[in-house]
Design brief:
This protein is of the alpha+beta class. It contains 9 helices and 10 strands. The chain has 3 domains: about 50 residues, N-terminal domain of TfIIb; about 80 residues, Arc Repressor Mutant, subunit A (Orthogonal Bundle); about 160 residues, 2-Layer Sandwich (Nucleotidyltransferase, domain 5). A hairpin with a 4-residue loop joins strand 8 and strand 9.
Length: about 300
């Protein structure tokens, strides 16, 4: 993370955690076993010394090792196999439980940043859901894809498909796509019929709703929503080894949020030969080969 320094060696856009002063200078290093030297800062007004929380504050493992584990997991390697990989290449490795906790922690951290980014979407999105098991009980992964950029807009892992949850997701789509969406394609699930048009509002001047609700019922021979079904195939390929989620709804949602990040920001989409974010969020420039690490640091910048 970079900060501007004035000619006296003080940091301009870094504030003290205690008194919020910007009168900050360097004050030596903190030596850690696994992360090496970490820059320590000092506030000249209140005297407190601190280090920057770049997303790995008080973590006992190296940031590259942690993001390696994230990448391996979302590419299809189980947490236990990830742990075996660490054991083969690093003398002091984490347990598979630690790997799982990193996946949950950093998926939530990054999604808190990426879920607020506006999207330069096309005029059509497709919505569908997949059924899973959480602790043996039915649950659903509801996902949305922009047909132009292939960007997965918001996704949500929920215990049940209820009206309020669908409405919240639709409001998020409406806010993040800046009114670009004019057509929403779903299957024949009755709940969509009730909330899709109402969520996007009615235009009194034109005498019609702001979006067209396109209902495609494959069971009646009306075809398939090809793009969302292809996304589902990718999700199934990653989750087929899970045999259901064994933790809470919250941890399952974090894992699926992590997959959303992997799909949108990490791996190239074959149809567009680039990551979906490059089309959907062109102002977001990620320059590092380790995008997991770059996204984690970006997600913490707003807290500094």
């Amino acid at each position: 993370m970079k900060f501007k320094i004035n000619n006296k060696g003080k940091y301009k856009n870094l504030s003290c955690r205690k008194c919020k002063s910007n009168n900050i200078i360097k004050r030596g290093f903190r030596l850690t076993e696994n992360r090496g030297k970490i820059q320590r800062f000092s506030c000249k007004d209140c005297g407190i010394r601190f280090i920057i929380d770049d997303g790995f504050f008080r973590m006992r493992n190296n940031e590259k090792r942690i993001t390696l584990c994230l990448d391996l997991f979302f590419r299809g390697v189980s947490t236990r196999k990830v742990q075996e990989h660490l054991q083969a290449f690093y003398p002091k490795n984490a347990s598979w439980v630690s790997v799982y906790s990193w996946i949950v922690k950093y998926s939530n951290m990054i999604s808190n940043f990426t879920d607020k980014l506006n999207i330069n979407s096309g005029n059509e999105i497709q919505i569908d859901e997949m059924e899973f098991k959480t602790k043996g009980k039915p649950s659903w992964f509801v996902d949305v894809i922009d047909t132009k950029t292939r960007f997965m807009v918001p996704s949500s892992y929920v215990r049940s498909r209820e009206k309020q949850q669908i409405k919240e997701m639709l409001f998020s789509i409406k806010n993040r796509t800046n009114g670009n969406v004019k057509k929403i394609t779903t299957d024949g699930f009755n709940l969509y019929r009730k909330v899709v048009k109402k969520s996007f509002g009615y235009n009194k001047k034109l005498g019609k709703y702001n979006v067209e609700h396109n209902i495609v019922n494959s069971s009646q021979g009306e075809g398939f929503n090809i793009m969302i079904e292809r996304l589902h195939n990718n999700v199934r390929q990653r989750t087929k080894t899970f045999r259901g989620f064994h933790g809470s709804i919250e941890s399952a949602n974090a894992i699926m949020k992590g997959y959303e990040i992997f799909y949108n920001f990490i791996t190239k989409h074959q149809a567009i030969n680039k990551c979906p974010y490059e089309l959907a969020i062109p102002e977001l420039i990620l320059t590092s080969e380790n995008r997991w690490l770059e996204l984690i640091k970006l997600s913490k910048e707003k807290d500094i």
